[in-house]
Amino acid sequence: MRNFKAQSLFYFSGTLLAGVCLFGHMACNSSLRDTGKNGATTLADRNWEEYGGGPDQSKYVSLTQINKANVSQLSVAWTYATSDSTEYLFNPIVVDNVMYVVAKNYSLVALDAATGKELWIHANLKGITWRGLNYWESKDRKDRRIIFSLNNNLQAIDAATGKSILSFGNNGVVSLKEGLNRDPATIGRVQSTTPGRVFEDLIILGSSPGENYFSPPGYLRAYNVLTGKLVWTFHTVPQPGEYGYDTWPKDAWKYAGGVNTWGEISVDTKRGIAYFPLGSPTYDYYGADRAGSNLYGNCLLALDARTGKRLWHFQFVHHDLWDYDLTAAPQLITVKHNGKKIDAVAQATKHGFLFTFNRVTGEPLWPIEERPVPPSEMPGEKAWPTQPFQPALAPFTRHTVAADDLNPYFTAEQTAQWQKRLAAARTGLFTPPSDQHEIVVIPGAVGGANLGNTAADPDKGIVYISSQDYPSVYKLEKMEDKEARVNGATNNRGMKAYQQYCQACHGENRAGAAGPSLIDLGKRVDPDNFKNVVATGKGQMPGFQHIDEKTVNELYRYLAGDNAGNRFAAAKKEAPVMPAGNVVASGGVPVPETAPFVRGSGMRFYPHDVDTPATRYVSDYGLEYPDLMKPVWSSIMAYDLNTGTVKWRRALGQDANAAAKGGKNTGIPIGSQRKGMIVTSNGLLFATSKGGKVYAFDAENGEELWSADLPWETYGMPAMYEANGRQFIVVSATSPFTKESIDRSKLPGALPRSYVVFALPEKIK
């Protein structure tokens, strides 16, 4: 029980073996689920049934066929080409020898998990949650469902047939825009970037409502998996009479947004407790309209999973002004502490701390100090005077930046420029953003621990973290000044819009940084889809509903270049393209006709009866400089939470540009972002890294035991499972390489974008 609390493979080719029908896959294994006795591996252990492997999100498996002695013999068992140019951040799930993936233009595909043979395809599910799916089955295992979000709706598919379940919700659909204290017609996006969590007969969901002024609130909700009926809602921005209401202005619940779980939910199934890492309140970088500590922003929140009742919480950042939201999965572990066995929960943060609590009471295992931090110099802003620090456990990122910390691989000109900028800037983990000078913080908005970046050996009390040292550079300006600057030069409007809204994540030259490359965007994205993504967001990108249509058109022309003409004009009228294979359905359940979302129709002004700040300020995310500091840029480490010590730490990945200049063990800028780990019971730790690499480490000391080059860059989380007596690990390799990596996708004989599956040679099985 575990608690918590306040070899290169791009030349590979092969023939897939034949499989049996999907019903046969499931039926023939049903009797094995509960046969684990005397340490035997049960069917549930052999599966990877959920995003992250299980409800506790430990990414821990009890499979032992692959071990320290033979892991170096892993090779490609089979691959499955996605047959498109989409980047899939998807964590496959595996149930009873059937693997479910998203491929072929956002189709849900069922595969034989031992061979990769296609079983069925539910085509054209564009808008499906990027990172994973939810699986549920009845106690008699006769009713099996895949539950997922499609755009802003919850839907269900029969796991055996691939067909939509029309008895779920309203003719197969549950709208996620309802019940958020906003007019649903004004909500552009609320769908979470992660799939949620199944517990008993509930599907528990977070959301991704955006990070702008007046974004919807990120209420936590649970729905019945059979009927789609809403069972409970937790108001993360408290309403009058609710606990935490007094940590906001009295009318903030009418306009404040965010405070959402777009990250990873963990569940203690024995106790029925769900743990939510919560995000920042909006607007992220200026909070004059939200004076107070702003519960439940930036909290670890423990709720009764059956009722949504609050059990306890702890807030890691008061009145967040730095986008230090929580995303990494809370890790449920058992530790020996002060001579007692304690079920605990460990939460890793974006700003580089690991906090550990009694899972039931919320009591910290080590003292947490509230330390004074700098005040804000912005008009109307009331930065919180103290912030929590965890002095007993060493942080896993750096917290200071100075001229001596600059990247040694910079040119002399770059070094001189940054020495000058740092001399004029202010730095510090909790130095509030300003309009007078730049603020450089480390780690920044996407540093520290993020999605997929935590794992555990639960019974041993060991937590593994992959992290990145990635500064953010902030500077506030008045919203009206920024809009005037962008709109003032019509001829350069598209370029200015790119610099304002896109450059921080996609890079100065559009080649990609925190976000993907936008080069040749016009060849793969039509104007209508582009407008929709800008308005509603996609993946980790928030929606920008306030950008006027003329600016969006100019932005598209700027990005699409010669491909910005009318060649896509008729595309929206064409029927969906059916992929090759056994297509059993297409498009999910048609969503009932409603008034279309109109850009700019969302909430744009404060309610008339609310006291408002005189000016609204905004800032970029400040993500243009992932390699600002000297290495190590990305790393992986192990904490022993029985003792509160670091067992080991090492670089994760190797930057190709630094290697060309003699650099070793540097990690890679953004090297751990949107990656994942797997822990095995016999002491292996698998991890993926930017650069298209998958590694196996000795979990005891961090020694590298094996690695493989993938044919394409990898994002998302790997999965491990057993099928037909053989242990496999599957990795999504579907993204283009960036400048920090060797581009193996262009080598002779390179594989297409694929799910790549490794195993030991069959003779070792």
> What is the class of one domain in the CATH system?
Mainly Beta
- Which fold name corresponds to the CATH topology of one domain? Methanol Dehydrogenase, Chain A
H/I helix tally: 8
Provide the spatial order of strands within the biggest beta sheet: 1-34-35-36-37
How far apart, in Å, are the first and last alpha carbons?
32 Å
Biggest sheet record: 5 strands, mixed
| Average pLDDT reading | 88
Strand content: 25-35%
Give an overview of the whole structure.
It is a single chain. The protein is globular. The protein has a five-stranded mixed beta sheet with strand order 1-34-35-36-37, with no helix packed on it. Strands 2, 38, 39, 40 and 41 form a five-stranded antiparallel beta sheet that branches. A five-stranded mixed beta sheet has the order 3-4-5-6-30. With 765 residues, the protein is mainly beta. The protein starts with 21 loop residues before the first helix and ends in a 6-residue tail after the last strand. The model is unreliable at 1-21, 27-40 and 563-573 (pLDDT under 50). It contains eight helices and 41 strands. The chain has a domain at 22-396 and 446-468 and 632-764: Quinoprotein alcohol dehydrogenase-like superfamily (Methanol Dehydrogenase, Chain A, 8 Propeller). The longest helix has 14 residues, at 493-506. 10% of the residues lie in helices and 26% in strands. Helix 4 (479-488) packs across helix 5 (493-506), helix 5 packs across helix 7 (549-560) and helix 6 crosses helix 7 (549-560). Strand 34 (677-680) and strand 35 (684-689) form a beta hairpin.
